[in-house]
Amino acid sequence: MLCAAGADPVIFALEDLHSADDRSRFDGIPVQLGRTLGPSQIGYSPDLGRKLAAADIDLLHLHGIWMATSHLAERWAAVTRRPYVISPHGMLDPWITQRGQAKKAIARLGYEHRSWRRANLFHALTRAEAADIQRETGNDAIAVIPNAVDAHLYDNEGRDSATARIVYLGRIHPKKNIDGLIDAWQILVKQRGPAAPQLTIAGWGDPIHVAALQARIDLVLDSRLSFTGPVYGDAKRALIGSATALALPSHSEGLPMVILESWASGIPVAMSQHCNLPVGFTSGAAIDSGVDAHSIAAALAVLLDESGAARQRRRAAARDLATQCFSPQIVSEQWMAAYHRILERNS
Predict the structure, then answer these.
(1) Are 167 and 216 contained in the same domain?
(2) Distance of CA 324 to CAs 150, 151, 158, 273, 329, Å?
(3) For a pLDDT cut of 90, what percent of the chain falls above it?
(4) Is residue 6 part of a domain?
(5) Do residues 83 and 98 share a domain?
(6) Of 247, 312, 327, 346, which one's alpha carbon is 20 to 30 angstroms from that of 293?
(7) pLDDT single digits (tens) 270-329
């Protein structure tokens, strides 16, 4: 999006096992990788710091916090006196800040407080996240800009099939409430017997969380419940397009891309309010699942049992949101305006 809008981005990132594969996603945009020293979850990389210091860039945009990359970014901004933007990507949500408090206290004292004070602008994906940022950092220079989805990449025909399918796609992590979703699906199995929907879970995560999920599925012993692992590209789009509904009953989110991708495909969503997309509820593209197994089951039942005409209205609402509120053109215009304002104030 930024290239199309006339910007010249350069990506700085920590090197990991997937760096070679990920590089191809950036379509020729320069990528500078830094080797890490010590635990990967800390992300300490003097190598990346040197590459950042040698780069000739007008503005630095940090994605994510709680890692040593915050220190590198803050030091760059202090030395160059050039603008510095932070996107926490949901990492200041209370559900997140209340976990691992000792490690986060060390990060705050070690580098995050300095980084937050140095930032010219914070980026929030939603108004709820903007409130979290202001509360945690005391900084009220916040731009609310959503993620974008290119609806042209997704099939929006809305295929019906004899077998209903609920799809979960995303990170395998307790905050996603996948156990609650499985509990809800088992309620539907008891209620509907052979007519119960399939539940397909796809995604990636820490090995311990993936192993726990697989162990639970193995105990259920029902072929209608499956875990496919991570899916990408055409396979991901095909899985979303095969769904009767997507489910995301999370305890905590920033702004989930998978919901935007589902709407681009014309697929309605059962999601919790923690997904921070209330426009989905008001438009009819989504239904509130809550986070309790019974409320999730009830929400899924509504989407499964709707008439053909009602389903078509939801599909149309979903597609309209993707094209009218979250299109790359609309979002890139907001980003370029924000970047230009910062650069002009700093000149």
Answers:
(1) yes
(2) 11, 10, 19, 21, 10
(3) 82
(4) no
(5) yes
(6) 312
(7) 999 999 999 999 999 999 999 999 999 999 999 999 999 999 999 999 999 999 999 999
Rounded CA-CA distance 118/168 in Å is 38
127 and 43 together in one domain? yes
Give the model confidence (pLDDT) of 142-155 as tens digits: 999 999 999 888 86
What pLDDT is stored for residue 156 in this prediction?
58
pLDDT of 157 above 60: no
The reply to whether 4 falls in a domain is no
Number of separate domains in the chain: 2
Residues 309 and 167 in one domain: yes
Residues 161 and 81 in one domain: no
CB-CB neighbours of 334 under 10 Å: 14
d(Cα 102, Cα 109) in Å, to the nearest integer? 11
Statement to judge: residues 174 and 315 lie in one domain: yes
Domain harbouring 251, CATH code: 3.40.50.2000
In this structure, are 175 and 312 located in the same domain? yes
Query: In degrees to the nearest 10, what's the CA dihedral of 136, 142, 144, 147?
Result: -80
Q: Is 5 within a domain?
A: no
For residue range 222-257, what is the model confidence (pLDDT) as tens digits? 999 999 999 988 899 999 999 999 999 999 888 899
